[in-house]
Amino acid sequence: MASSTLDASLVAFLSTHAPNNVAEETDAVKASQALFPEAAYTDADKQEITQWLASAAHIASSSDDAAKSAERLSSLNTHLASRTTVLGAKPSVADIALYQKLAPVVSKWSAEERTGEQGYHHIVRHVDFVQNSPLFGLKIDDKVNVDLDNVIFKIKPVDAKAEKERKKKEKEAAAAAAAGKGATPTTLTGDQGAEAKKSKKEKTKDVAQAAGEAVAGTVAGNPTEGKKGAPEGAPTQKKEKKKKEPKPQKAAPVEKPLSPALIDLRVGHILKAETHPNADSLFVSTIACGDAPGTENTSEYEGQVVRTVCSGLNGLIPLAEMQNRKIIAVCNLKPVTMRGVKSCAMVLAASPKVKEGEDAHKGPVELVNPPADSKAGDRVFFEGWEGEPEGVLNPKKKVWETIQPGFTTTDGLEVGFDVAEVPQLSGEGPEKKTGVAKLRTKAGLCSVPTLKDAVVR
């Protein structure tokens, strides 16, 4: 999650232009609440405010090349296409932060850049809204000059509901295509293709018309003359109702056997880490784990799909060592909210085994390192235990709690899975495995700096 503290330039801007003495607040959420007391911010809103503050700091950066700058502006423009503010409808200090950074940029844009066919229409609209709306109440003398009559290319307004439905259908179609289920109009030929393209309404109409003609023919006593109607006074025949067949019951899903492969381990890249605003023992990290855009429990940070992850490492690992580094993440635990921040993965770390009565959190602690050439999203697995992980581990089945005691480190400082520590998987027989399986990616083995025979969790 991005920083929740306002930077000095934004504080100075608020001090000069904003009402309510909001500049006395340096926390993003508190500043938003002071500016807009009638707005009720959810935990998700608060997280989004801090993320947009971080985006605002980079969106007009002079150090970026033209392509990177255009990518960021295009992403913001798309986001605002169906929203009044960055949160949707609620105002926040994030809107003002974006205005502060973008107003000098927008003021220099040509008419084509503002409202051309490839222009940033929605950014211009947002800038004009923030500087003029009584909702924000900004006292600005040198406003961006926005000529509402000078629009080169008029774009159609985005229907938020329709846009959501479109994305849902695209996602479903992509999933169906990936699974190879069913045929598409492009795979059909001749009449098949034409039939596949018929709308649901047209198909229903065709079926109803065919049924009507068949009934008419039966009533007349001659199917070929059905359309002429039945003779006057002829008895009518009621169509027999089909007996309802019992619906076949869905087969219960096949349960995968217990295995370390059920755990979704991936290489993660920590893009940013900070201390938790409400918990002294926690870090909050923004981690790229190779997720596809639109994946549940992810967001976007600097053009990358990321997860927000809370880890109890504050005081055990210096914050500086958490910045811009590769780690191993557990990605299919059920998300949990930790003191107001939703955590959507877990960072693997090693610590010495402790005896009964000793403090299990005294340290030292070392993060598990993937091979240097690994990339965010690379699959991580124990040798000999390959397989497809579960989508989300069912907390009731306690898969993680059962498997994790086998996670350890070797004398060679490699991370491994000691099957002897998991009674359900160890023992005698052809199906049972023995020894320590090493943790690896396609690029090599995972390791720790110094801790031997340690607990990894």
Automatic annotation (TrEMBL):
Protein name in UniProt: tRNA-binding domain-containing protein
Record-linked InterPro entries: Arc1-like_N, Glutathione-S-Trfase_C_sf, NA-bd_OB-fold, tRNA-bd_dom, Tyrosine-tRNA_ligase_regulator
MF (Gene Ontology): tRNA binding
Protein source organism: Epicoccum nigrum
Chain residue ranges for the region called Disordered: 160-257
Superkingdom to which the source organism belongs: Eukaryota
Keywords noted in UniProt: RNA-binding, tRNA-binding
Biased composition annotated in UniProt, kind: Basic and acidic residues: 160-173
Low complexity bias locations: 174-183, 207-221
